[in-house]
Design a protein that fits this description.
- With 398 residues, this protein is of the alpha+beta class.
- It contains 13 helices and 17 strands.
- It has helices at 35-50, 53-59, 173-181, 191-194, 212-234, 273-285, 306-314, 327-331, 335-341, 362-367, 373-378, 382-389, 394-397; strands spanning 2-9, 17-20, 24-28, 77-85, 90-99, 104-114, 123-131, 134-137, 148-151, 183-186, 238-245, 251-259, 262-267, 291-294, 319-323, 342-347, 353-357.
- The strands form 3 sheets. It has an 8-stranded antiparallel β-sheet, with no helix packed on it. It has a 6-stranded mixed β-sheet with strand order 10-14-15-3-16-17, with helices on both faces. A 3-stranded antiparallel β-sheet has the order 11-12-13.
- Helix 5 packs across helix 6.
Length: 398
């Protein structure tokens, strides 16, 4: 499953914003154009399904008002529509209105669209509907099961789905909920956090990487061996990435390297920033998370290792989104992947973030005839580009 389109109105600078997504996505744009905001919004969607919006805000050191858009100060809601698909014939749509002060979706709906197969008709089913404190549930996979309607008389944060038992939902939620709840954003990865010790990972390295050591410990020996095998491609002298337990259950990462007859053991607090970041990214690829988001993917990583990293990410099982300021990233994408995955974000004169496929811009696309994707990016003045987009015909500027 993967998300194919997002529409959002009222989340920070995302006002009347929409963007198509592919399996691998690369966001480019000037500082402050909204790249990190897109990652934060997707993480916000996942947290709606997990619930505990208060805890999520606290982890980011935000309060309720930090979610809303300053461009529409009187607006107290975030409205969105998400389209995602399981396969070529099965699509889903999630619409909701999130009340910022109440920290929950006050209106919400999930639809299932099944495209026609051989001898079949196209069909649309309502799986869940919330409106005016009333909950409606349907079960398209079981025609004999009656629709359920009930008044919501319980408290919840985020989506109502976060508080419903699986047996109350249609069976298709069995893969909708895991996919959405297993989306993870790492837009705050920081070396000082990656070096920390922790007792438990809760299934993730953490927003800033603060649970990396515990996560590696919980991967088990097989998972750490696979991680070490991949890392050895970038660091030939590396033998293993391992962990050990300290007092009171604290976990610490240790790197083993061999140089001739010398064996070096390096604790996490002494590992260089680039290796730490690469370990964190590759570790998350070993997780059961289904959509991974990384901000400024090239930060701290040697240019010589960028090709290795991009190859790993574009071939990953998970849906991936990265942001970058570096033409190097685009240099390692083939033309077809670049055309599908690279999205340019810019701000309007009013301050709203907008998105356009970078190589859908006619004169940028023309550059691909004589340049590589990275060269075309490096040869473009992004400051002027936003102004030039305004002069494009409507269909090309969408």
């Amino acid at each position: 499953m993967h998300i194919t389109k997002i529409k959002v109105n009222g989340f920070k600078s995302l006002v009347d914003f929409e963007m198509d997504l592919s399996k691998f996505n690369c966001l480019i744009g000037l500082n402050g154009s909204g790249k990190s905001t897109v990652l934060q919004f997707l993480d916000f969607l996942s947290q709606l399904i997990r619930g505990d919006m208060e805890g999520w805000l606290k982890e980011r050191q935000w309060d309720n008002r930090d979610i809303g858009s300053k461009l529409t100060p009187k607006k107290k809601t975030v409205e969105f529509s998400i389209i995602f698909q399981e396969n070529a014939t099965l699509h889903f749509k999630w619409n909701a209105r999130y009340n910022i002060s109440e920290r929950k979706c006050t209106t919400e709906s999930f639809y299932m669209h099944r495209s026609p197969g051989d001898g079949e008709k196209s069909s649309v089913s309502i799986l869940l509907l919330v409106n005016a404190q009333r909950l409606y549930l349907d079960y398209p996979e079981d025609p004999d099961k009656k629709n359920k309607r009930t008044i919501i008389n319980f408290n919840y944060e985020g989506s109502v789905v976060s508080q419903l038992k699986p047996e109350l939902l249609s069976k298709v939620f069995g893969f909708i909920v895991p996919f959405l709840s297993n989306l993870r954003s790492f837009d705050m990865l920081a070396p000082q956090s990656l070096r920390r010790r922790d007792r438990k990972s809760d299934g993730s390295i953490g927003l800033s990487g603060q649970r990396l050591s515990a996560f590696l410990h919980e991967l088990g020996s097989v998972g750490r061996q696979e991680l070490s095998r991949k890392l050895k491609q970038a660091y030939p002298n590396l033998d293993t990435v391992n962990t050990h337990s300290l007092r009171s259950g604290w976990k610490e990462m240790v790197i083993r390297e061999s140089y001739g007859n010398n064996v070096l053991l390096t604790e996490a607090r002494h590992v260089n920033d680039g290796m730490l970041r690469l370990i964190a990214i590759l570790a998350e690829l070993e997780s059961d998370h289904d959509f991974l988001l990384f901000d400024e993917i090239e930060n701290g990583i040697n240019p010589e290792l960028v090709a290795f990293l991009i190859q790993i990410l574009t071939n990953a099982r998970q849906q991936i989104m990265v942001t970058t300021h570096s033409p190097l990233i685009l240099n390692y994408l083939d033309d077809e992947t670049a055309q599908e995955s690279v999205v340019y974000l810019y701000k309007t004169e009013e301050g709203a973030t907008k998105a356009i496929k970078f190589f859908d811009i006619p004169y940028i696309k023309k550059k691909l005839e004589v340049m590589g994707p990275g060269e075309a990016f490096a040869d473009t003045d992004l400051i002027k580009l936003a102004k030039e987009i305004k002069n494009l015909p409507p269909k090309e500027a969408e």
